[in-house]
User: Fold these one by one.
Assistant:
Number 1:
Amino acid sequence: PLSMNQRKHPRMNSRLILLTLVAAASATLAHAQTFCSVREPNRVIHEMFPDSTGFRTDILEITRENAVKLPADLPFVFDRREITRHPLHVVVRRGEIIGYVQARTQATRWGLTEFVWALDARFNLLDFRVQRSREPGAAELGSSKLGASLRGLSLPDVRRRWSQAWIEELQARSGLPAEDRQLVEAAVSAGAKTIWLATEIWQLPAR
């Protein structure tokens, strides 16, 4: 119920309602940003593309219609929270596009793990970072040789190789224990999802 003061001052009451709506919208935006954005993009992009001279950020959207187009043989699914807009960083060197960087989130044993994947200009896997994770092996994964093992693979390459035997091989080759196998699978899935979105949904041209 309205207080006596609010009944006397309806304009003030309207302002309070407006402020509440703005705060709620800001909280929603902040949640969406933490789910799908690269933190500190300047630093991360410089690490992944040390010879870059800049980048631009395109805002692209995943719709429900996009999500249902997912072929059954791809090793990932979409979380309902991914049905939203996503920033894609387009990395350039003296005006020429040399790659792409995007954050992708995958479900792992202890919750959601955020990866940042870099693709080359032809949409092949280049490198990744673990941005946020509760997994005990996340730090070891981020400093492992997994990125080097995947470098240069295209989406068809990942689809041809995909099997539990391949994931086990990648885990062993990266020097990671067996309990981190699901984390390895999540990293590869996030990279494949990044390529699929760029090429099949957003239909960006290869350079």
Note: The CA atoms of residues 149 and 170 lie 7 Å apart.
Number 2:
Amino acid sequence: GAIDGRFIALKNNANVLFGGNALHTNSSAFARGAFGGAIKGGEIMLTENESVIFIGNKVNSTGYSSGGALDTDTRIQISNNGEVQFVENAASGVHNVFGGAIYGFSGTTLFSDNARICFRGNSSTSSSYAYGGAIGFEGSLLDFRDNGTLQFFENKVVSTGGSAQGGAIYAEYNLNIQNNDLVEFYRNAEVRNEQYRLRSIHSSWGN
């Protein structure tokens, strides 16, 4: 990936673009794999930028992989930006794969007070278990609040041998979508053993 660190902040920039970054590993060991095609971090903060775009970033592993664009084990905050886009990012692997664009292992991931957020054409693909075409989240709270437009278009999660859950979003625990001006989910898909189902969200708990 492009950046790896415990605390990563991108603030008050005109335009932020991560495009075509990639991470590939050949290890099948449980603790090893490919994580965070653009940014792998503890706490990741993207705030008060005019635009934030992640396009065509990828992770691929013969073991485990997660977060085609962003991967955190602590917290992500994306707030007070203008345009936020995650486009055609991808995570793929042989074993468990989480989050074509974003993976959160723990803590919270917050999107708030952004003018527009768009996830389009992101994918999570595995020959066993795949979770979250755009976002795979195992933390305590995935929260979208007080944004202008929130869109998930044509994201997909694909498994050729296990389960595929959450064409757009897989949230293990709490998912909150609140006080946004416009929310759109369109043609997000779960594909399991070549059987295609239009379903956007898989969440154990939610609002």
Note: The first strand starts at residue 3 and ends at 11.
